[in-house]
Amino acid sequence: MIDTCCAIERMISIDIVVTIPKSEYENDDRETQDMLEKDLVQFWTLSKVPRRLKIGDRVYFVKDGKIESSMKVVDIIENSTMTCETTGRTWSGRCQIIMDDLRIEHLDIQVRGFQGFRYKWW
Q1: What is residue 48's predicted lDDT score, i.e. its pLDDT?
Q2: 14: closest CA among 69, 76, 59?
Q3: How far is Cα 49 from Cα 47, in angstroms, rounded to an integer?
Q4: Strand order, beta sheet including 16-19
């Protein structure tokens, strides 16, 4: 019975939360505008792979101390390098999350900025 419970727990996926650094707010706004106007997807680079994150889950973004938006995960690529079409910057990492379906969130949750990711706690 214990083995069955463990197998089920590993199958459960959980959304993650990431913080947009203040130094990236302007780029984030430009990337979001390009995504909406040009029907692009966005990506987020992490140094650690969130093992419980699955395709179809959401990534929530902290901006100005609150959950501002979220996007649906459409692909997860490990050990990858990508170049942003908006900024021209190249990003490399152990995990790159490809997302679309931008949703503005209206959550009354205050969040202090942090590095990396956290699993959704609410």
Answers
A1: 97
A2: 59
A3: 7
A4: 42-46, 90-104, 66-83, 58-63, 16-19, 117-119
**CA–CA distances in Å: residue 11 to residues 14, 92, 99, 107:** 10, 27, 21, 27
Bridge partners, 71 (sequence order): 59
pLDDT over 60 at 3, yes or no: no
Q: Which helix (H) or strand (E) holds 77?
A: strand 66-83
Q: Residue 11's pLDDT band (boundaries 50, 70, 90)?
A: low
Element (H, E) at 38: helix 25-38
Q: Which letter does DSSP use for residue 95 in this model?
A: E
**3-class DSSP state of 25:** helix
Band of pLDDT at residue 10, cut at 50, 70 and 90: low
Segment 15-37 shows an average pLDDT of 96
CB count within 10 Å of CB 49 equals 16
Tokens representing 17 are 């939360």
